[in-house]
Design a protein that fits this description.
The complex is a heterodimer. Chain A is globular and about 40 Å long. Chain A has one domain. By secondary structure, chain A is mainly alpha-helical. In chain A, 79% of the residues lie in helices and 0% in strands. In chain A, helix 3 runs antiparallel to helix 4 and helix 4 packs antiparallel against helix 5. By secondary structure, chain B is mostly helical. Chain B has one domain. Helices cover 83% and strands 0% of the residues of chain B. The longest helix of chain B has 49 residues. Classes of the chains: A mainly alpha, B mainly alpha. Chains A and B meet through helix 1 and helix 2 of A and helix 2, helix 4 and helix 7 of B.
Chain lengths: 126, 283
């Protein structure tokens, strides 16, 4: 598992905040059209993404040093792909799907599970 | 000695004192600015607790039903990270105290904990080596000025040796405040907006009077966040002034008694002193 440099943790925190914002915007923009269950699902994902962003910011404050390996480039690409997917989600199902993949990827980053990370990066890019 | 010569000698001595005093004044103002960091840093943890409160209000037991201690537990990692940053700030603060004392020929009151900090940082492989070295070197200097040997230290030498470290440490603190604290407040703003907007969307029609109170509460909290953002910007500016002042000292280290340096340092000190009350009020 690559240990993130403070700058990378900051960038990922920023990206996850953006994804959470997009999910929130989608939920409120489509409030009347969404079923209560869909609204709840989107809100749950939004809070999870916000918490993840908050955790990554904590890592940045901790001044962690870089111990990078090649998977970090893939990680950044995957996060950007998810960011675009959430932003341009045509409906709730697509938004939930992309947000859920972002949550899976976030969990892999936090736990430092290299296998899970590789799998999550692969799925996120697809 | 004739009166005229005595006056000239006295003038030189007083003039020298005033100029060295400018270094001391700048150093004290810089130290006081650094000392405001812990209060600001505490809010980084408090913001995490507030964000968890909003989340709990929507997802958990409901607003006000969860114990504050439970929310604080969720923010323990943030608290630890913040405490480490505060320790780094303390080394910087002690450095400026030592610099001021050295400039004014005073005895430095040493807090031995900075020594422990340097050791603790070196033991922690997670830390950026450049930052660890900068903090450790500053801490080592602060430790050295408490011995009798400090009297032999030349101000010029100290400034020359520590300028890079001071810059690195101030940069690290600036990044934490300008980027991380700013992100933290933005996250809180997003969580707050989501909390209140959801509550209003769900209940405003059914309970219009309660909705008015909810809107008032949201506006109040949004205003408090705005004030924190403004204070954050002021602190970043103060850190920049602190760094610029030390760089100015470094640039003129061969002629610390120059009139122009005294004027400029007085200006840096005045800028910092002017910012301090607003920073103290904000946090």
């Amino acid at each position: 598992m690559p240990r993130l440099a403070a700058a990378d943790a900051r960038a990922i925190a920023r990206d996850y905040h953006d994804i959470a914002l997009s999910i929130g915007a989608h939920r409120f923009a489509n409030w009347e059209r969404l079923s209560p269950a869909r609204r709840a699902e989107l809100e749950r994902l939004q809070w999870t993404l916000l918490t993840f962003s908050s955790d990554m910011t904590t890592r940045a404050i901790d001044l962690q040093v870089d111990d990078l390996d090649a998977s970090l480039a893939g990680l950044k690409k995957a996060v950007n792909t998810l960011k675009r997917a959430v932003k341009h989600a045509s409906d709730a199902r697509a938004a939930i799907s992309a947000a859920a993949r972002a949550v899976t990827l976030g969990a892999a980053i936090v736990t430092g599970n290299a296998v899970a990370l590789a799998a999550a990066v692969g799925k996120s890019g697809s | 000695m004739r009166d005229g010569a005595r006056i000239v000698v006295m003038a030189v001595i007083v003039s020298g004192c005033v100029r060295t005093g400018a270094v001391g004044r700048y150093a004290r103002a810089a130290g006081a600015t650094a000392a405001e960091f812990p209060a600001l840093a505490d809010d980084m943890t408090a913001s995490c607790v507030r964000l968890e409160g909003y989340r709990e209000g929507r997802e958990g037991k409901g607003w006000g039903l969860v114990e504050r201690g439970d929310l604080e537990k969720r923010c323990e990692d943030r608290g630890k990270a913040v405490r480490r940053a505060v320790s780094v700030e303390r080394v910087l603060g002690r450095y400026f105290a030592a610099l001021g004392a050295l400039a004014d020929g005073e005895v430095v009151d040493f807090d031995g904990s900075v020594d422990d900090l340097a050791d603790a940082l070196e033991d922690d492989a997670k830390l950026d080596r450049k930052k660890v070295k900068a903090v450790s070197d500053l801490a080592a200097f602060v430790a050295s000025v408490t011995t009798d040997g400090y009297r032999h230290l030349k101000l010029t030498q100290v400034i020359e040796e520590q300028n890079g470290n001071v810059g690195t440490v101030i940069d690290a603190l600036t990044e934490i405040v300008a980027t991380d604290y700013a992100n933290i407040l933005e996250l809180e703003a997003t969580g707050m907006e989501s909390f209140y907007r959801s509550a209003l969307a769900e209940g405003a029609e059914r309970e219009p009077l309660a909705a008015i109170l909810v809107r008032d509460a949201r506006d109040e909290r949004a205003a408090a966040l705005r004030e924190k953002r403004e204070a954050l910007a002021k602190y970043v500016k103060a850190l920049g002034t602190m760094k610029a002042g030390h760089q100015r000292l470094y640039d003129s280290r061969r002629d610390l008694k120059a009139k122009v340096l005294a004027r400029e340092l007085a200006d840096y000190a005045a800028q910092l002193e002017k910012m301090l009350p607003a920073l103290r009020d904000a946090f």
